[in-house]
Amino acid sequence: RMKDDIRNLDQYLGSYPYSSWKKWISLSGRISEATLQRLEPINRKISSVTEMIPDDNERNGESSEDIRLPNMCARPGTEIRYTQTWKRHFPQGSSAQEITKHSMDGSYQLDN
Question: Which listed residue, 1, 5, 15, 98, has the most CB atoms within 10 A of its CB?
Answer without folding.
Answer: 98
